[in-house]
Structures are given as C-alpha cells and as structure tokens.
Design brief:
The complex is a heterodimer of chains A (about 280) and B (about 200). Helices cover about 65% and strands about 0% of the residues of chain A. Chain A is mainly alpha-helical and about 280 residues long. In chain A, a hairpin with an 8-residue loop joins strand 1 (about 130) and strand 2 (about 140). Chain B has helices spanning about 1-10, 15-40, 40-55, 70-90, 115-135, 140-150, 155-160, 165-190, 190-195. Classes of the chains: A mainly alpha (about 280), B mainly alpha (about 200).
Chain lengths: ~280, ~200
C-alpha cells in the first residue's frame, strides 16, 4: 500500500468502515510509515475535536407544543415550503450558490451545443456507414443508393448480432466485478450502434421498416441508457441493462427478427435457384 | 420494526394518532439533523416541522423500500438544502456566523462546575468547529454530519442521499481533509495536542 492509498483510507479507518485485507494492509502501512502514522493521529484528533461540538437544543416547552403546532399546520392545509421542488424519494444536491434560472440557461446552452455537435460530428455522412463487425473503428465507403435490399438486410443482421453480443456480454458480467468497473468501450459501441441504427432505418422500406423501427426503438432505450450512463447513477450499469433487457424482452425480439430475416433469405435463394434453372432450360 | 410498519400503514389510512406516534419517535433526530445542516435553532425548528408536514403529505409515496428513518432523513436533507438555497438567494450569505449570533444561539454553559475560563475556551472551540463546518460544501456537510453525528454507515448514507457508496466515500474524504485544514491552527497551535 502506498502512502497515497493509505491516506485515502483515513476516514474509513476512523469510522471503522474497513474490513479484512484492506484493514490489515492499512494497519501494516501505519505501523511501518511514521509520516502516515502522525498524519492519521492528526485526523483522529480533528475528528475527536469535531465530536466536542455542542448543539443548541430547544427547551421542553417547544417539544411539548410540537405536535399541536404540527397538527394545526396539517389541519389548516399549510403547504411545506418549496413543496413543488422537493422530491421525497430523491436528494437534490444542486449547489446552493447558483440561482435556478442559471441552470435553465446552462441547460439550454448544453442542448444547443449537443444538437450542434450531433449534427456536425455524429450523424453518418451519406457515403459512410459503420462496419458492424470486424474492425469497428474503420468505416467503409459505400454509396447508400447502391445498396441492394439484400445488402441492407445483411447490415441489419450484423447490427442485431453486434447489439446482442454487447447486451449478452454485459448481462453475463460476473458478479465479482465491482460496480465501479469501467465500461467505456461498451458505451462507445453503444453509441456506434445508435448511430448505425438511425442510418439503417432510412434504408429499409415497407413493412420491414416499420418492424425494424419498432425493434430499434426498444433497443435504443437500452443503448441510450448505456451510452449515457454515469457513475453518479444509483443503479449499477449491469443492473440497468438487465432490467431493460428483461422489460423489453429484447433478446427474444432480436432472435425473432433474425429468424424472419433468415427465412426471407432462404426464400430469396430458392427463387434465384428456380430462376436460374428456368433460364437454363 | 413491525410496530413501526403498522403505524405507517395506519397513518396512511388517515390515523392521526399513529402519525403522531411516528413524529414523537423521530422528532429529536430530525431536529438535530436539521440543526447540523442549517446550524441555527430557529431555522432548524422550522425545517423539522416542514419535514413532518412534507412526510404527512407524501405518505402515500412511502413504499417501505427504505426505512422510515432513512426516508425522513432524505426529506430533511432536501429541506435543508432548499432552505439554504432560499436564504442564500435572500441574503447571499450561507448563514449567520455563529460568532456574531445572538447569545441565545450559542450553546449554554450554565452547568455548575464550569468556570468562566472553561466556558470561554469551550465557546472558542465551538466557534472554530462551526467555522470549519461552514467551509464544507452542502453535500460534504450532509455526508459528514450523517456519518459523524448521526452514526449512519456509508451504505446507509448512500441510501439516504440516493447516490453510490463510492461518491459518499469521496465526499467524506474531502470533508475530513477540509476539516483538517480548517482546524489545524486550533488543533496544533493552541496546544490541543496535549489535551486530546
């Protein structure tokens, strides 16, 4: 354990929030490092000092009239201050020094910047589509108009394969991984898939398009949650993905879509073989 | 806490006596947390009443996923943060400095056996402690007071503030560092090393 690691654990050690190997390593370091030992002594003293704080308590008279005062407020229909802004199941940790209108302006600016960046950087260019498999960072130049129906279906199939692999990989992550595990790569893939889906959607026609749109709508909810996930979120990422996958039965839908695509490919092949046969005759 | 659960269910059905019992059981803790956050007796009294008023109006939203005390603490922290925002907007000051507060706001030292010197020393210590707490951000203060004065574990605090345990750890770490800096003079230079 380094001195830096050790010092980061001072509060945990003081409040007895360490167990097992971590505590053993901490104690061993403190025993062997004079600087950390004296620094930890200072932390202990500071916190002991904080423990000497005295509160101003209301007198007996206040407590004896407490319920009556509260009851009167309840019966008179008084509203608690700021009730409309007070979610009871969530803590609002917005800093106190900024007025709410400043957040409004900041939000508008962020949305504007987001839209600008989205339009200039993330929307696929006409001549460019992302490769759904293999080296995902390389894009291939294909004229969209030149894509045949079969080619689009192939791309859709690869898109679904990649989405399924991503989701399966996440939901099967072993439980031993800490919730702080970095999923940057998966988030990047998720963003690529969202981008690819919006492109493919424009290339499909007729009933295929409607079906696909519905599927990517469901899939998009999960992919967007994954792409925008931040460590501040109280639900672990894997849990979030699992919930989304279960709720939307997404893997089942992907499988059904691929079976349907396979079926249509088989029919197409049969038709082509028949046509070839006829032309030979 | 089956008894508490029963009281909550009865209160949800409009039983005021059941709600009263819930209030009686938790009013002191709610007041103390409010005081630790706003650090002014009158504001803490107002906030604590507001907390129960809010709790009464939102009873139907209490689904029992968290403990009753956790839920109340959550409302209290929210109320205190909002209270702080509104007072900040009004006066552009976080709070009245306890050093300039009226005498009634200072902890009392009327007990027998406390000499004027000791009372003055204690008053100085209180002033330093309050000033050190002033230097913490609202979230650091919420985490620190819940851990230090209300003895909630990091896990319970994470549940109360609806953030991850890792976030709580980093807030606590920063809070302790800040307090270290703020109290260094008092702790080291006034010879407190010997006292503690």
């Amino acid at each position: 354990m380094t001195c830096k690691d050790c010092r980061e654990l001072f509060a945990d050690a003081y409040y007895d929030e360490m167990q097992g190997e971590e505590r053993t390593a901490f104690e061993a370091h403190i025993a062997s490092c004079d600087e950390c030992k004296s620094e930890y002594r200072r932390v202990e003293k500071t916190l002991t000092l904080m423990g000497q704080r005295e509160r101003v308590e209301p007198d007996e008279e206040y407590w004896s009239g407490y319920w009556q005062a509260l009851k009167s407020k309840i019966e008179s229909g008084a509203q608690p201050e700021n009730e409309r802004t007070m979610p009871v199941n969530k803590v609002n940790l917005r800093p106190a020094f900024m007025p709410s209108w400043a957040y409004g302006i900041a939000a508008m600016l962020l949305i504007g910047i987001g839209v600008y960046l989205g339009r200039t950087m993330f929307v696929p260019k006409n001549q460019e589509i992302l490769q759904p498999s293999g080296d995902h960072t390389v894009s291939s130049k294909v004229s969209p108009d030149s894509l045949s129906k079969e080619e689009v279906e192939k791309q859709v199939n690869m898109y679904l394969d990649r989405s399924r692999a991503l989701l399966l990989g996440l939901i099967n992550t072993p439980a031993k991984y800490p919730s702080s595990t970095n999923f940057t790569r998966q988030q990047q893939v998720s963003r690529e898939l969202i981008q690819q889906a919006s492109y493919l959607e424009t290339k499909l026609g007729g009933p295929d398009r409607e079906r696909f749109r519905k599927l990517i709508g469901d899939l998009g909810v999960i992919l967007r949650e994954l792409a925008n996930y931040s460590v501040e979120n109280s639900v672990p990422l894997i849990e979030l993905v699992k919930q989304g996958v279960d709720k939307k039965s997404i893997l089942l839908k992907i499988n059904l879509e691929q079976i349907r695509a396979l079926d249509s490919q088989t029919k197409l092949q049969e038709r082509t073989t028949k046509d070839n046969h006829k032309s030979k005759i | 806490m089956a008894d508490e659960q029963l009281l909550i269910e009865q209160a949800k059905l409009g039983d005021m006596e059941a709600f009263r019992e819930l209030v009686e059981r938790s009013k002191i803790n709610v007041y103390r947390l409010a005081y630790d956050m706003v650090r002014n007796r009158h504001d803490a009294e107002d906030v604590s009443q507001d907390v129960f008023l809010q709790a009464y109006r939102s009873l139907s939203l209490f689904r029992g996923e968290a403990k009753w005390s956790t839920w109340l603490y959550r409302i209290t922290v929210n109320k205190c943060l909002d209270h702080r925002k509104s007072t900040t907007r009004k006066s552009m000051e976080y709070r009245e400095d306890i050093g300039n507060a009226p005498h009634s706001e200072m902890p009392h030292h009327h007990s027998e056996g406390i000499t004027p010197d000791r009372a003055a020393g204690s008053s100085l210590l209180q002033k330093h402690i309050e000033r050190a707490l002033d230097c913490l951000s609202p979230r650091e203060r919420a985490v620190f007071v819940l851990r230090h004065y209300h003895d909630l574990s990091l896990k319970q605090i994470a549940e109360t503030l609806t953030v991850t345990e890792g976030t709580i750890k980093s807030h606590l770490f920063r809070a302790v560092q800040q307090l270290q800096r703020e109290l260094a003079y008092y702790r080291d230079d006034l010879g407190l090393e010997k006292q503690l």
